[in-house]
From TrEMBL:
Family membership: Belongs to the GlnD family.
Gene name for this UniProt entry: glnD
Keyword Secreted: no
Species per Swiss-Prot/TrEMBL record: Frischella japonica
Xref: PROSITE patterns: ACT, HD
Summary of the function given for this chain in its UniProt record: Modifies, by uridylylation and deuridylylation, the PII regulatory proteins (GlnB and homologs), in response to the nitrogen status of the cell that GlnD senses through the glutamine level. Under low glutamine levels, catalyzes the conversion of the PII proteins and UTP to PII-UMP and PPi, while under higher glutamine levels, GlnD hydrolyzes PII-UMP to PII and UMP (deuridylylation). Thus, controls uridylylation state and activity of the PII proteins, and plays an important role in the regulation of nitrogen metabolism.
Protein name as annotated: Bifunctional uridylyltransferase/uridylyl-removing enzyme
């Protein structure tokens, strides 16, 4: 804590001024409210954040001192049998004198002997009063002996005590505590250092080891306040003082670096202070629904999300700097605390670099300034020496200095381009070169346009990371295709990846696939132009350049087709194959697409998406093998499925004549829409079923990564709405729907569903779902249930509604694409619309991407024909009307 600031603060009003007659809960609450309002006013007036943080701490100090006096708790209490020394001590963040509006007030009441009953009662009254004042108090009452034992057993308690500060009470007792805590018998410096390093690593893993989450935790995310505190704690334990205040003594950071880390801390303090003003409960997360209010409170200006974009860019720059400084200092502390063993002394690699304890270090501190190309040489050297696991603190400092002094880009140097292409072609390029190049800001000074995407926000619930971090994670997903875990997770993609002749082309593609985000225009088209220029600059041959440019331009093609188009329709596969052109392009596109989806959000990839990608890939690959014009017609597919199903059923003992009679009521589109296995499954459940009664069957085995629900029921208005409504009530998400009707107007419908986490429906729920659906199907009157689900996040996003009528090779059907904000129960509303307009739903693809949906419906009119222009306009207006109705209801 900066004692020189703290000691000179003058509070505008003080709890010490309240006499006993006026000391009541209401008066104290009023004083706390008054101080809070004063703090907000001062914050908005841009008062120094250090002053506000320490002022609140001093205000709470004086409140506690006043209550200590009120309850007559002096520093030493005499009784007939003993003398109790007692102290009220601030610990943790409060011990540092750092209190934000909603911060915990952590206190320790310390005594040298067990307290008497009367003293315990008074302390209990004091603590209860603090709770009544709605202060978040964390308190402990311990003797010195117990306190030291607890500190020995728990490093968290030890850490809190390192920052202890006496508020009121016995000073000698407090000093005894400090003396014992700093004694090397309790958490020796080496053990404390290692424990804190492990603690930081574990905490970072909770945030996916990145500072670039779109909803970061200001305190705990990598590069957050906790990373500064870790350094302070280690310095306190080892040196007994705070290095940020006594840098001349430690000489681990330059004065400029000390000022930089203090400025970074002040920036995060201001964001945290603003966050605590905006919310009404303790939290340190910069959630989407808070970011705009915080940005405006901090003075960021602009239209729409511009204030957030500006604030978050500053935030990511600050946490990046904290991460670099944290790593530098922890390395230096490690050398001081653990000391290097003789076998770990530096040894030369070449004339430029040496190795220090498996870390690469420059031999000349002016190397990068004198010759910037050597920055690329550094990372190439790391690739060529497997024993190197990272970069030494001194070299990190030189990289930071050279990076900030760069004029122009490194790729302007011909020798740098040669080094870069050598790096790109190395099999370990992603984890051993590109990842550290990103971490230390080198990609931003090499790749044209990369600097623009560093810290770029993506305002949706689909993406989890900034644009640059998403790109790095895509690269890491590609690297994982070569690992046992990656091969297990992505069996198809990893096999394809292993066959790629030049995986480095995929690396370049990945670097540029989103590089044009944030620019006006289609980022895929703009990115393709940028990567084409990059390929020309780096002398990539025409064939390879053509592939890279195509991949960047069409990097979303496979994902959109797999998730939003009918993969059972041969015309869809043919059209996709024509766009992809050949098997080589297909292989590269599959690997890029899978890695892209996985890198977008930790929870996005599931067995359903995996099955869609695999099916699209396999069908397209098969088509390339047959010849792109040899795709079978619908009727030939139907005949093949029908004959194969019959063969399998006969093997199981079913009578051929009985089956053929049973199938007389089925139309050919049933047989080409359903697979052989599905047809067999249906027959086994329906052949001896009372066909006048509805039937619901749930497949015990996964189907294309989802849970398959088959429904047989008399076709009637609102059937799709009824099923959608019932599944929605059960908190199940429909991802695919196949709607067919036999000649007797009985529906044979299939729904592929998953739970909200993208998982299969557990078997113990099957019977409950089956029963509820059959009950709903027996009801003659349709009534939509009102379903209320949390919309707290959704309401902060605006997704313009798009209704597109897509062209199709099949003129008997109309393809309707709906893009809009996700709304619970929307499918049931849409089912009502289809029924009200006398439209038949043939199939549906339901895709939820974060806060918005991209659904595809295949419709016909009552005459089994495509919709005319008038029907399309009626449908469009009905959908817009119902979306307005849902928004008004919410």
């Amino acid at each position: 804590m900066k004692t020189e600031i703290y000691s000179t603060l003058n509070l505008p009003f003080s709890p010490l001024d309240i006499d006993n007659e006026q000391l009541s809960i209401n008066n104290l609450k009023s004083l706390l409210d008054k101080f809070y309002q004063w703090s907000v006013t001062e914050f908005e007036a841009k008062t120094d954040i250090d002053t506000l943080i320490y002022m609140r701490s001093k205000f709470i100090d004086q409140l506690l001192i006043r209550l200590w006096q009120y309850f007559q708790l002096p520093e030493q209490i005499s009784s007939l049998f003993q003398i109790n020394r007692i102290s009220l001590i601030a610990v943790g963040g409060y011990g540092r004198g750092e209190l934000h509006p909603l911060s915990d007030v952590d206190i320790l009441i310390l005594s040298d002997k067990p307290l008497t009953k009367s003293i315990e009662d008074k302390i209990g009254q004091l603590v209860r009063l603090l709770w009544d004042l709605h202060l978040d108090v964390g308190h402990s009452v311990r003797t010195l002996k117990v306190c030291l034992q607890e500190a020995k057993n728990d490093i968290t308690i030890m850490t809190n005590l390192l920052e202890a500060r006496l508020i009121v009470g016995n000073n000698k007792l407090f000093n005894e505590l400090l003396h014992q805590i700093l004694n090397n018998t309790i958490w020796p410096s080496r053990e404390f250092y290692q424990a804190k390093i492990n603690e930081q690593l574990q905490r970072h893993r909770q945030y996916h080891s990145t500072s670039y989450n779109l909803e970061p935790d200001i305190k705990n995310s990598p590069g957050g306040l906790r990373d500064i505190q870790i350094i302070q704690w280690i310095a306190l334990r080892h040196f007994g003082s705070n290095f940020l205040q006594e840098q001349n003594h430690f000489n681990y950071l330059t004065p400029e670096e000390i000022e930089e880390i203090n400025n970074c801390q002040r920036f995060l303090w201001r964001i945290r202070f603003a966050l605590h003003i905006v919310i009404n409960r303790y939290d340190n997360r910069l959630l989407f629904d808070r970011q705009l209010s915080i940005a405006r409170l901090l003075g960021y200006q602009g239209e729409g999300n511009q204030p957030v974009e500006k604030m978050m860019r500053d935030y990511y720059r600050v946490v990046h700097n904290i991460t670099e400084l944290n790593q530098m200092l922890l390395q230096l502390f490690e050398e001081s605390i653990l000391t290097l063993k003789p076998e770990n002394r530096p040894y030369d690699i070449d004339q430029y670099f040496q190795i220090r304890d498996k870390l690469i270090d420059v031999k000349d501190n002016n190397l990068f300034i004198d010759n910037p190309v050597m920055i690329l040489k550094l990372f190439h050297t790391m690739l060529l020496n497997r024993q190197i696991i990272g970069i030494y603190s001194n070299t990190i400092r030189q990289l930071r200095s050279a990076r900030r002094k760069m004029n122009g880009l490194l790729c302007e140097y011909p020798q740098a381009r040669q080094q870069f292409m050598q790096i790109i072609k190395h099999p370990d390029v992603i984890k051993k070169a590109l990842l550290p190049m990103h971490r230390y800001g080198i990609l931003a000074i090499y790749i044209p346009g990369w600097k623009r995407i560093v810290g770029m926000m993506q305002f949706d619930l689909f993406h989890q990371y900034t644009v640059d971090e998403h790109t790095i994670r895509l690269l890491l997903e590609l690297a994982d295709f070569t690992t046992p875990d990656g091969q297990k997770k992505h069996p198809n993609s990893s096999q394809v990846y292993a066959k790629l002749a030049k995986p480095e082309l995929l690396v370049i593609t990945a670097l540029f696939h989103d590089i044009a985000k944030g620019r006006s225009g289609d980022h895929s088209e703009l990115g393709a132009d940028l990567v084409e220029q990059f390929c020309q600059l780096h002398n990539v041959n025409e064939k390879d350049s053509k592939l890279i440019v195509w991949l960047v331009r069409y990097h979303l093609l496979m994902s959109i087709t797999a998730q939003s188009r009918d993969l059972q329709d041969p015309a869809v596969i043919r059209e996709f194959a024509q766009q992809v052109k050949n098997k080589t392009y297909l292989q590269y596109l599959l690997c890029l697409t899978v890695a892209d989806v996985c890198a977008t959000n930790e929870t996005l990839w599931n067995s359903w998406k995996q099955s869609l990608m695999r099916e699209l890939y396999c069908q397209t690959d098969r088509l390339f093998n047959l010849g792109i014009h040899q795709i079978p017609e619908h009727r030939s597919i139907a005949r093949e499925h029908k004959q194969s199903a019959l063969t399998l059923l006969k093997l199981d003992g079913y009578d051929e004549t009985t089956i053929k009679v049973f199938w007389q009521n089925y139309q050919f589109d049933y047989f080409w829409r359903y697979t052989t296995e599905q047809i067999v499954w249906h027959v086994k459940h329906l052949l001896y079923h009372n066909l006048t009664e509805p039937l619901v069957v749930i497949n015990e085995k996964p189907f294309h990564g989802g849970t398959e629900v088959f429904i047989y029921s008399p076709d009637r208005p609102y059937l799709f709405a009824t099923v959608s409504n019932e599944l929605n009530k059960r908190n199940l998400n429909i991802h695919d729907a196949l709607i067919t009707t036999n000649k007797k107007e009985y529906a044979l419908d299939t729904f592929i569903v998953l739970d909200p986490n993208g998982q299969l429906i557990s078997h113990d729920r099957h019977e409950e779902i089956k029963t509820s659906l059959e009950k709903a199907l027996r009801q003659t009157d349709y009534k939509r249930a009102k379903i209320k689900r949390p919309l707290s996040k959704l309401r902060h996003f605006t997704v313009p509604t798009e209704i597109n009528f897509l062209s199709s090779l099949n003129d008997r059907k109309t393809y309707v694409e709906l893009i809009t904000k996700d709304r619970p129960g929307l499918l049931a509303y849409l089912g009502e619309i289809f029924s009200n307009l006398d439209l038949s739903l043939r199939s549906a693809k339901i895709v939820t991407i974060g806060e918005h949906i991209e659904d595809l419906f295949v419709l016909t009119n009552k005459n089994n024909q495509a919709l005319n222009e008038q029907s399309c306009q009626l449908l469009r207006q009905a959908i817009l009307d119902v979306i307005d109705e849902m928004d008004n209801e919410s």
